[in-house]
Specification:
The chain is α+β, with helices and mostly antiparallel strands. 32% of the residues lie in helices and 33% in strands. The longest helix has 18 residues, at 82-99. The chain starts with a strand and ends with a strand.
Length: 105
């Protein structure tokens, strides 16, 4: 199981993701940030809360605007399902180009 950790403005959000999804996000987010552009990540759930950040209640999702200078890290296995990875990269890249968002789940 992979993990995304987003740290910005004194708050930290963590969420477990399938390894192929975490690897795909790493690929597209790094490219997007390299262009000096932020993005929205929609559909975040649960995850660990730090710095008094409220947990996402059951049945709810969270959308985070992530600036291009935010500290974002991804953890995943080196070996992932390449077909799932390629599909996710294509889907995320298309969504970023259309509306500057990545939607999870």
């Amino acid at each position: 199981m992979g993990r995304i950790v987003i740290m910005q403005h004194g708050a930290t959000y963590q969420m477990g993701l399938p390894d192929a999804v975490a690897k795909a996000m790493n690929t597209v987010v790094v490219e997007h940030f390299a262009q000096g552009r932020g993005l929205a990540i929609e559909g975040l759930r649960g995850g660990g809360a730090e710095n008094d950040q409220a947990l996402v209640p059951d049945g709810h999702t969270l959308t985070l605007w992530v600036g291009p200078h935010a500290n974002v890290s991804f953890t995943h296995q080196d070996q992932v399902d390449e077909e799932q990875y390629s599909t996710m990269v294509a889907r995320m890249s298309e969504s970023l180009q259309k509306n500057n968002r990545i939607h999870l789940r």
